[in-house]
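#structure-requests
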Amino acid sequence: MSTPSVTILKNLVLNWESNQMEEETIATFYRHLDGYPSCHAIDIANSLVVASRTKPEHIDFSGGSVERGILNNRNWCQHFLKAMCMADADIEFIGEDNVPFASYTYVVTGAYDNFGGKVSIGAEEYLSRINIKVYEGDENGNLVFEGGAAECLAWADGYCGDC
């Protein structure tokens, strides 16, 4: 039986007018099959862990090698999407106005510093800046999980919904 899911990626950004942190949708994708938490939530959490292990670049300046961090306070999503697209998951990017029925909706929100400068961050900080929520049905449905990648892996491994 197919279990479709929708995944909504959001940035947590500063609203300059209200000086409050707000969520801003940046991408939405649909997974036709394997949307169960025991599959899709694990794929999401594993992709975040893989993304957190992005290696620094080594740049050669006339014979001198310099290490430059790749993960920063503004690019969580690009590394997550790279890892997610390498997972064994058939996903289709969709528009916000064209969200089909889903058995589960996953909302992955990462802190995006749209203020100050761009700074390198390590794996631990990368993961601490990202929150996963899982709902039965749409985003207004029953919230069945909220937490980080490690907690999501532990939860999803034992989640059986209505079984």
